[in-house]
């Protein structure tokens, strides 16, 4: 005797088991779409509207976002319009064709030294502005080679690890000039100064103002000139020893019609009726003069596109 084996399907979703074997085949569950299913091209179009910090965070989500974060057009929108000229001036022409746009952005965001290490330029990550600072060895300072008047002092407070310290002098004059591919915009030139010689004692910063003199008698004059005929000047007394202060020399406009702009600037106090002293150029020492540039829609700079700080730091 044998048993009869039969397959019985009465309903596609149900089966009965009455003296027979019933088999049911179930379909796999449907999968839901995820962010990983987005095409890289679509993701890149979204990333183009985000800032660099947000792009880098989203690149960690998955492979699609990571690949999209390397798209050239995403990073080209974060670079100044004349970024190729900036690369040539700061990094060298040989790098233009070797780096993708993300690598160019990364390199330009570093403090890149050029002109024999007397200048440093970088991009501000938040504003996309170009920043530039100048060492004292990149400026023409009257009497700088005479130890009776000036000394170069090493310090960690300077971007260039050294400052020019003025002991005393009758004729005070600092001049600078250079050519740079400024992006189009309005720029302001500031001298960042400090009166008093700073040092550390028992781990605390102190500032000796004993030798500061002569700056309250006559004002210091600041001037700037550009290659297209612009000129601006201002003057003020130097005061507030021991603190960094920004002294506004003037503004100038770059319209973008030229690939580069020649700029000259000066700081003078040439009244020889009295000596001036206790003065350091660039970071925090008697009178510290910092000349540098910050090209961007800057904060607290009268809506100027560039904040230029000229500094006498080696």
Jot down its keywords.
314 residues, alpha+beta, Jelly Rolls, seven-stranded mixed sheet, 6 helices
Task: Give a written overview of the molecule.
By secondary structure, this protein is an alpha+beta fold. It has two domains: 37-76; 130-311, Galactose-binding domain-like (Jelly Rolls), CATH 2.60.120. It is built from six helices and 17 strands. It has helices spanning 40-47, 52-58, 63-68, 72-76, 83-91, 101-108, and strands spanning 112-114, 119-123, 130-134, 140-141, 150-154, 162-169, 172-180, 185-193, 197-201, 204-208, 220-226, 231-236, 245-254, 261-269, 276-281, 290-295, 306-311. Strands 1, 2, 3, 8, 13, 16 and 17 form a seven-stranded mixed β-sheet that branches. Strand 9 and strand 10 (204-208) form a beta hairpin. The relative contact order is 0.16. Residues 1-10, 13-21 and 279-314 have low confidence and may be disordered.
Q: What would you say about this model in short?
A:
By secondary structure, the chain is of the alpha+beta class.
């Amino acid at each position: 005797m044998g048993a009869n084996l039969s397959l019985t399907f009465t309903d596609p979703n149900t089966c009965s088991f009455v003296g027979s074997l019933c088999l049911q085949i179930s379909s796999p569950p449907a999968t839901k779409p995820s962010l990983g299913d987005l095409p890289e091209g679509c993701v890149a179009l979204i990333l183009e509207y985000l800032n660099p910090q947000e792009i880098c965070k989203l690149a960690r989500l998955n492979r699609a976002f990571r690949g999209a974060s390397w798209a050239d057009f995403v990073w080209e929108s974060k670079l100044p319009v004349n970024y190729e000229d900036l690369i040539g001036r700061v990094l060298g022409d040989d790098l233009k064709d070797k780096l993708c746009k993300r690598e160019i952005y990364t390199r330009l965001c570093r403090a890149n030294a050029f002109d024999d290490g007397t200048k440093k330029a970088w991009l501000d990550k938040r504003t996309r502005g170009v920043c530039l600072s100048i060492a004292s060895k990149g400026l023409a300072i009257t009497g700088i080679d005479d130890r009776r008047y000036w000394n170069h002092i090493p310090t960690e407070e300077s971007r260039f690890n050294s400052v020019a310290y003025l002991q005393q002098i009758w004729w005070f004059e600092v001049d600078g000039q250079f050519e740079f591919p400024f992006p189009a915009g309005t720029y302001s030139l500031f001298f960042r100064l400090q009166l008093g010689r700073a040092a550390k004692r028992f781990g605390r910063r102190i500032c000796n103002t004993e030798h500061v003199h002569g700056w309250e008698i006559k004002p210091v004059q600041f001037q700037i000139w550009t290659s297209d005929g612009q000129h601006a000047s201002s003057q003020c007394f130097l005061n507030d020893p021991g603190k960094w202060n920004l002294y506004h020399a003037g503004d100038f406009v770059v319209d973008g019609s030229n690939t580069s702009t020649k700029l000259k600037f000066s700081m003078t106090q040439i009244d020889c009726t009295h000596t001036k002293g206790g003065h350091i150029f660039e970071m925090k020492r008697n009178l510290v003069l910092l000349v540098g540039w910050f090209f961007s829609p800057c904060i607290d700079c009268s809506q100027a596109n560039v904040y230029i700080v000229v500094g006498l730091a080696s």
